[in-house]
Amino acid sequence: MSEKEIAKLRADVDNLTGWQKKQNSDVAETNKKVDEMNERFDARFEKLQYWLLGISAGIAVQLLILLAGG
């Protein structure tokens, strides 16, 4: 192999290394965004659960009042 070919191969390897680092960075950013979205979803879902629990408790109390003849 000539020195010119070796130099070109080294440049190609350097370019691929840079590309791989960029891809890894992009994947890390995407993972971070997905984690943030997951945390927000969990918080909203928890609020929804409490809201539904409150409604269910209210309905149960109303049914008990109706059944007790009130």
Structural notes for this entry:
Helix content is 93%, strand content 0%. It has one helix at 3-67. The longest helix has 65 residues, at 3-67. The radius of gyration is 30 Å and the shape is rod-shaped. The protein starts with a helix and ends with a helix. The model has no long low-confidence stretch (mean pLDDT 93).
Topology:
Elements: H1 3-67
Order of helices and strands: H
Rg over CA atoms, rounded to whole Å, is 30 Å
Strand content: under 5%
Give the total of beta strands. Answer: 0
First-residue to last-residue Cα separation: 97 Å
What does the overall shape look like?
Answer: rod-shaped
- The average pLDDT value, as a whole number, equals 93
> How is the main sheet built?
none
Catalogue the unreliable spans.
Answer: none
Task: Specify the structural class.
Answer: mainly alpha
Number of helices, where a helix is a run of at least 4 consecutive DSSP H or I residues:
1
* Amount of helix: over 70%
Entry summary:
93% of the residues lie in helices and 0% in strands. It has 70 residues and is mainly alpha-helical.
Which properties best describe this structure?
single chain; mainly alpha; rod-shaped
